[in-house]
Amino acid sequence: MSWVSFNAPAVPRGGHFPVMPFFCRESAFYNTGVPIRFTFALMASLMTLGGAGRAVAQSQAAMTQSACNKMKRAENALTGIYEQIVKAKATDGNFVTAFREAHAAWIAFRDAHLRAIFPDPDPNTYGSANSMCRCGIQEQMTIQRTRELRRLWITGIDEGDVCAGSCAVKSASSVPTRKE
Question: What is this structure's pTM?
Fold first, then answer.
């Protein structure tokens, strides 16, 4: 009776693979003779250290609470900028009326945008992360709107922009100049 041997890669003494497995071929350890045990230990330690030093919410409820708290902070920042602009332009009744209308329209847009992303009125349709996702999207949109309002009416746009309208304008002295 003869035995059939196959040419399966054997692990030589010392635990080194002569050829790294497919999932390690793109790594810096490919064909370097680094023991595979060391490679896996290094990868495992890097994955666990990636989250070290920061608190990470573990449950869905905690992640949702965190996302919604961030959204509330973004909403408060937007409200602060909005009130600052209205107070600064209080003497311009036309602006205040138009600005309030624009803000109400932006809120309606934001809400409609969220409804377009999650159109089913039953929140269970989108799973347990639905509330967290909604808060995250609303936070990002609110941050973007806050930056836009700050740039247009607080920080100001560059002097000489003929389309400035009612926006604040940076004076020429506050605009950084390029040194030749």
Answer: 0.64
